[in-house]
Amino acid sequence: MNENRTPVSSIEPEGLDRIAAIATLVEAIAARGDLPEVFQIAKRSLADLIPAEQILVLLVDESGQLLTISPALNRDSLAGEQGGAIPVEETSFAPAVREQRCLLRPRIEAVEKLPPGDQRLLLPDAASDLVVPLPFGRETLGLLHFCSRTPRAFTRHHEFIASEIALLLALAIERARQQRAREESERSRDIWRFRYRSLFANSSIPAALISFRDGVIEEANTAFAELFSLAPSELEGQSLSHVFEGESLEHLSQLLQAARDENRAVQGRIRVIAPSGTPELAVRVLPPSPHRPNEMLVLFSETEKLAAEGRSLERLSMLPDLLRSLVSLPRELPPSDVSQAVLNELGRRLGARFGAILAQENGSEPLRLRYAQAFEGEKPSGLPLSTWLAALAEGPYEGVLETGQPLVIRDVHRDPQFERYRPVAQKLGYESLLTVPVRGATKDFGLLALYFPPGRPPDAADVTIALAAGYLTGLLQEQLDLRENLERRNRHIAAISEITNSVSSNLELEEVIRATFQETRKVLEYDVGCITLLGERPEEVRVFAVVSERVGKGLRKGLWKRFGREDIGWLLAKATEGALYPAELQEINRQMQSRISVLLLSRNKYLGTLEVASLERQAFRSTHLEFLRQIASQIATAIENAQLFEEANERLREFSIVAEVSKSVTSSLNVDEVLDHIVKVAAKALDARVCTLQFVENHEPPTQAVISAAEWIRYLPDGAYRQAIHRIISEQRPVFVENLQPAAEKGASRTPLRSFLGVPVISRGKPIAVLSVFWDAVRTVAERDLHLISTVANQAASAIENARLYQKTRRTAEELSRANQELENFVFTVTHDLRSPIVSIQGFTSLVLEDFGESLDPEARQYLERVLHNVAQMEKLIEDLLEFSRIGRVSRPYETVPAKEIVQEALSSLAYPIQERGVEVRVAEDLPLIHCVPEQIGQVFTNLLSNAVKYMGDQKHPLIEIGWRDGERHVTFFVRDNGIGIPKEHHEKIFGLFHRVAPRGVGEGTGIGLAIVRRIVESHGGKVWVESEVGKGSTFYFTLPKKEG
Fold first, then answer.
1. What residue ranges in 603-753 does DSSP mark as E strands?
2. H or E element that contains 301
3. Could you identify which of 43, 63, 91, 1002 might form a hypothetical disulfide with 998, taking C-beta atoms 3.0 to 4.6 angstroms apart as the criterion?
4. 3-class SS at 1005?
5. CATH class of 890-1041
6. Which residue has the higher pLDDT, 120 or 671?
């Protein structure tokens, strides 16, 4: 499968800003910033992304009825309100709170006509607003409110961005709530930790807390202080000798020592010093607490009820130790283990026979037995103990959770409300029952029940201790739940952060999906994870799946690869035979008992789905769904980026193929070689088995063919293929056949080729060939494949057309060359044949003038002299024509000579006319060495200098300058005069044969001189031109290439 990637530069800057804002907010939440700080970060990010003049955060109270404007969260807003609550019904935001829907008002006509709550929240001149909920599961924690003074300031795109930020803000708000709950839990724990002090202070039995080490009364209750007509504070800090004397003081010290040494309660009698006399009191010393070994509780009484009440207070004294032991439980214990530890500790200390924990999943479900334990006594026979303990779930417990009050049944055999449960009580051997609620600060968890043996009914102290333990258990469970939720949220945030980093730093789609599965496995336990991506066409479906070890053992390992230590990994599949998922994956999905699925949306575009499933029932919670929704937004962003990257890479691939074909077309004129290269490139680019280019003429079937793999020529099909070729030629459009084989005509040879795509090769509006590709498997063709092969077909048309033009041009050049050769031969023959009669005419005319000149009259003599002059002119013309024909036809050797020598020879040959006309000639002293045919370049200088002298006109100070300038590859010479000049329209014509510009009588010439100059210069690889104005002289330039090396 072609998995191309999107370059970062193709990502819209706004998309990068949104990813950066989310990453910054996630980092702030992970760093445990307080809520105002997190909101200010979010607010700054939103201000850059959404055009709002005011941004408010509104918190929904526990009843869901009030919107609270928090000054701490809105300290930088423009709102006039600073704190306060607004009933939801007084606003138009109820759908956002109750249905978790975004509300967008593109145009607000008049704020004063809106509900009162809206008027308090909006700017006075507001023109549009946007409301986005802060969802946490099914609960709406608050709203984000954006307000603008501009109509239609907000779009659905802004709503999408705000919703992403709102999810993260909801996490921060929930974490703040959890933090407050933890603090409440700590305060509640402190209350229960010191509750025994109020019990101690309010007891009707005289009691004192005595320091064994110092013999000092640490604390005294009111009953004890009243024995001495004092207030408790007046006794605290006093020595024992202040209220005891003699033997009583000694006996009390002995009792304190015994209780400490033996770690048990001891009793005795002593006398106290009191205003009413010295009454004798019974005394009971309780053993010290392990955490406060030097402080001992001493009880006094004037009656026999000391024993019973002492036992109650003795149990009450267990409360601090019990609470302390429960608070010191390991923090890593799960909530269920905490409940069991509380039940075991409480049952053992209070002497219960059985204990049970009954839990409630939510407020609407019945209580269920979560845990039961036997503490002492004989076990019932006949059935397993677990069966009997399961019957403890039956009882009149409903009112305990409703009222929050304990249930005490002192005799189950006589109490009418327990009648139906007596058989179980008789079998298990318990007689009394104590049930208390397990309740935290914000929710109820269930009940804690103790079952006592005969003769041991629970008293007020037992109820107090059990209530305290129940409340403490609730607080501990709530704290553990909060901690677990916080840890889960932190895991969610870490996973979101990791995936966000992966999205922003990696454009590899498979790597991003791999990271998604890895990070979600840290948060969710699932057996199947599946990401399904949809393409633009129905058949363009990609499935990425990962399955757990326990369901993946029987898979075909050819399709699956190991993914980590615990999973079998990547599946890459397409729809086959009408099925979206492979058969193995469908079978695995049928085994799943629970699943959650979310949509992958990017900019309101549906890209696919993300789904996880488990073999376990009720494996997922609402928080898991919320987490997947947040992950899905990041995955959708990654997919969109990857698709952009794929498109860019696909374009780059097309460009490279077109460039390769273009290079082949332009670098070679061998059409067979170019077309062979084109079909091979096309076959490779489309991953085809074979590619052909078949020529057609006059819409007839193809005859001649170019094929990318010669061994496949015998497999080219007929039947449907031939029909497709006719359609391509006649309709001049591409044709695709998905399966050639079923359409094969009866009796036609079978071929291993299956799918076919053909496009016409059109030149000058007519089909000249068909470019075809074949695959050996049934497949579909994407739009980009059709575009690519059409582009290649156009290149093929260009190659064929170029070849035809080349052949035509070559034939024309050959014909022109032959014509030029014939012309040169004709000129040479004519000029050569003309010389003989010209010589005879010249000779005979000279003889007549010499022998008979004196006898001729002047007019006859003038005629003969004119004949001689014209003969001389004709002879010069013939010599020039002969020289012109020899240039380029007669090969002469090149030499490296000084240009100055050539110029001096030319000037010497023209010394007489130069001197006769009084022309000043200036020659540059530093003329260079040149590589040339010296005789020909000498003729160039001679012809140019001769013309300069001839056409000097009546110039009083005639001047000719000969110079040069150096170039990178050429040397440029010039011959400049100040003669009559040349009209601009003749600057090019003068280099043609027999073209003269000067009027008759001005200068004499054959009209071939400059033609000879051009031909000599061009044969040397240079060029010649003139710059001139009439009356201002002329400058002739010509270039000669430098010798290589």
1. 605-614, 690-695, 705-707, 735-737
2. strand 295-301
3. 1002
4. coil
5. alpha beta
6. 120
Long-range contacts from 112-115, C-beta under 8 angstroms, 24+ separation: 115/90, 115/91
pTM: 0.40
What's the chain's Rg over C-alpha atoms?
A: 56
- Give the model's pLDDT for residue 919: 92
- For helices 783-852 and 858-886, give the axis angle rounded to 10 degrees: 150
Question: How is residue 559 written in tokens?
Answer: 């399709």
For residues 195 and 198, what is the distance between their CA atoms, to the nearest angstrom? 5
Distance, CA of 419 to CA of 428 (rounded, Å): 15
Instruction: Give the pLDDT confidence of 362-411 residue by residue, as tens digits.
Output: 555 677 777 888 887 666 665 566 666 777 777 777 778 777 788 888 88
Give the containing element (helix H, strand E) for 502: helix 460-505
On whether the CB atoms of residues 752 and 775 are closer than 8 A, the answer is no
- DSSP secondary structure letter of residue 182: H
- How many helices (H) and strands (E) the chain has is answered by 28, 34
Closest Cα partner for 1037 from 985, 956, 962?
962
Q: Which two tokens stand for residue 556?
A: 């075909």
Residue 929 class from Cβ within 10 Å (0-12 exposed, 13-18 middle, 19+ buried)? middle
Fold type of domain 199-302: Beta-Lactamase (3.30.450)
CA distances from 51 to 122, 152, 170 (A): 15, 10, 22
* Angle subtended at Cα 726 by Cα 722 and Cα 729, rounded to the nearest 5 degrees: 135
Contact between 909 and 877 under an 8 Å Cβ cutoff? The reply is no
The CATH code for residues 506-649 is 3.30.450.40
544 closest CA partner among 554, 534, 556, 555: 534
Query: Do the first three CATH levels of 199-302 and 890-1041 match, i.e. the same topology?
Result: no
**Which superfamily, per CATH, for 680-886?**
GAF domain (3.30.450.40)
Rounded CA separation 644/5 (Å): 7
- 13-71+83-188: CATH homologous superfamily? GAF domain (3.30.450.40)
pLDDT band at 26 (very low <50, low <70, confident <90, very high): low
DSSP strand pairing (103-105 vs 85-87):
unpaired
- Residue 729, phi then psi, degrees to nearest 5: -70, -45
Q: Which of 70-74, 109-113, 883-887 has the lowest mean pLDDT?
A: 70-74
Which residues, in sequence order, are CB contacts of 331 under 8 Å at separation 6+? 483
Strands of the sheet with 605-614, listed across from one edge: 562-563, 567-573, 541-548, 528-534, 605-614, 594-602
In whole angstroms, give the CA distance from residue 1032 to residue 959. 12
| Core vs surface per residue 945-969: b (16+ CB within 10 A) or e | bbbbbbbbbebeebbbbbebeeeee
Number of residues that make up the chain: 1045
What average pLDDT score do residues 159-179 get?
82
Q: Which residues contact 625 (CB under 8 A, 6 or more apart)?
A: 137, 596, 598
| Amino acid present at 56 | L
Secondary structure element (H or E) that encloses residue 837, with its range = helix 783-852
CA distance 472 to 188: 8
Pick the CATH number of 329-486 from 3.30.450.40, 3.40.50.2000, 3.30.70.260, 3.40.50.720: 3.30.450.40
Output the six-digit token pair for 536: 């633009």
d(C-alpha 250, C-alpha 157), whole Å:
88
Q: What is the pLDDT of residues 134-162, one digit of tens each?
A: 888 888 888 999 999 999 999 988 888 88
Nearest-angstrom CA–CA distance, 95 and 269: 76
1033 backbone φψ class: left, alpha, beta (φ>0; ψ -120 to 50):
left
| Rounded CA separation 460/309 (Å) | 10
Report which residue type is found at 145: H
